[in-house]
Model the fold of this input.
Amino acid sequence: MDSNASFPSVSTAKPRLIQRIVQYPHPALRHRAKPLRRVDVELRQMVAEMLELMYERDGVGLAANQVDLPYRLFVMNPTGDRAQKEQELVLINPEILSRKGGMEEKQEGCLSLPGIYAPVRRSTKIVLAAYNLQGQEVRYELEGLAARAAQHEVDHLDGVLFIDRLSPGALAEIREKLLELEQEFQTNRRLGLIPDDRQIAARLAALETLRT
Ligand code: NI
Done:
């Protein structure tokens, strides 16, 4: 027998904690994220929602700032394929311990800068330390796309975007697209879809006092 049979049906669907991926030039993208002190049920839900958004948008990585959260946390899966669960990483308070293997320039994009791609120089191999969702310390040696994605995401947590790392020539080539995103942001703000800077900062500060 269904133990709930005699009760009126109550929706058990949890309200979403994360609404959307914010786009350049949203101030959350320039906010330096703070280390997390603990992993709790709510944080696990945020991570699940971040992974969902990342896969929905065909991304290979997503940092907390990109969903308007001030925490040092990112998710990634270099395959971008949710079926390849074993490639999925949740990295809390990540730290790059070493960069090696030389530098390589390759095309990058970002879910917060839709439609913009440009070449970025990154280390080809890194050693990354972090905590996982079980609160255990983990260490990974990453290379190729995984190393590139992790460096891109750690940059996010420091308020750095890949467009900050472009050569002047590459930046000039995407200048017009950046201006379009800036105009779109201002339009959305005028429409009341995006709060003002002061409200955004106050919200991030309130979230920080909760768990950092
Ligand atoms: Ni990005």
The chain has one domain: 27-211. Residues 27-211 form a domain with the Peptide Deformylase fold (CATH 3.90.45.10). The first strand starts at residue 61 and ends at 63. Confidence is low (pLDDT under 50) at residues 3-9.
